[in-house]
Design goal:
Length: 290
């Protein structure tokens, strides 16, 4: 009987140890999940914060004072201009690198950033005097960088957001957008910075248009290019560079509440995970007492 009792007692200890080990492993797994979720939320918010126009608004060149903009150029000599599309999130400095890869993952201050920067094709002239001037930018959520170009697929939105401003070479130019197209990233007829005639270029790309409006006397064009749904798919917004500038009709409207930088959906999941861990701890403590 004693031997049998010892065996039963030993078996219970082994089972208890296995149970405790499994409980600890499960608990550690949930703790790691919570830590990873917390890091993911922080990292996600950090990326979109770096991509927000508000980060660079202190550098934006004003009509009477460009001191702040000059300070940004001192930080990064590749900065050469500023682009604004009225009523949108697109309100950023412009850079140009020695190649078209540098600013895919580099921000305006020259630091590594997954959001990158809006950059002019390396083969374009920095004063944007070419007939076709192509600016690239990431397609990001929350309309950051060129993520908002998709809105131009809607005719009403396009009509309400046709104008903007380009600051380059110490001067402001008006922007009048008139066409949105879908194209392949390797379509040389679209990505043709050597085009000599704007009207011929417009006629060439018009069959690819999703939205299009009449435009007169186009001499210089700006092409905003970003990724679309397919691997090589691109969405491009085409605009005319004008010597005269346009008033921003959205300045007089009440400023909307600043967008929260908190991802509430993931914060909710993070909170649920913490509660779940607390529940597991309570169960473990209660089972030990029992």
């Amino acid at each position: 009987m004693k031997r049998k009792d010892r065996k039963i007692s030993l078996l219970r200890k082994i089972v208890s140890m296995i149970d405790s080990t499994v409980n600890i492993a499960v608990l550690l797994f949930f703790i790691l999940c919570v830590l990873f979720s917390g890091y993911s939320i922080w990292d996600n918010n950090h990326i979109y914060t770096k991509a927000s126009p508000s980060v660079y608004e202190t550098y934006k060149p004003e009509k009477e004072d460009t001191k702040s903009f000059e300070e940004l150029i001192k930080i990064n000599p590749d900065v050469y201009g500023w682009i604004t599309l009225y009523g949108t999130e697109i309100d950023y400095p412009l850079v140009q690198g020695e190649n078209n890869q540098k600013y895919i993952n580099t921000d305006y201050e020259g630091n590594f950033s997954l959001s990158g920067a809006l950059f002019l094709d390396c083969n374009n002239s920095k004063d944007m005097r070419d007939t076709v001037n192509i600016i690239y930018g990431h397609h990001m959520e929350k309309d950051k960088m060129f993520g908002g170009l998709d809105h131009y697929e809607k005719e009403d939105y396009f009509k309400e957001h046709r104008y903007g401003n380009l600051y380059v070479d110490g001067k402001n130019y008006g922007l009048e957008f008139f066409m949105l197209i879908k194209a392949d990233a390797y379509d040389s007829s679209v990505y043709n910075i050597h085009a000599s005639d704007a009207n011929t270029y417009i006629e060439t790309i018009e069959p690819l248009s999703i939205q299009s409006f009449d435009i007169e006397d186009a001499k210089r064009l700006v092409v905003l290019s970003t990724c679309s749904d397919s691997t090589n798919g691109r969405t491009l917004l085409i605009g005319k560079i004008c010597d005269e500038t346009f008033e921003d009709p959205y300045l007089e409207k009440e400023e909307s509440e600043e967008e929260s930088s908190i991802d509430w959906y993931h914060m909710f999941l993070y909170g649920i995970s913490i509660v779940l861990i607390l529940c597991i701890l309570i169960v473990l403590v209660w089972s030990k007492k029992k």
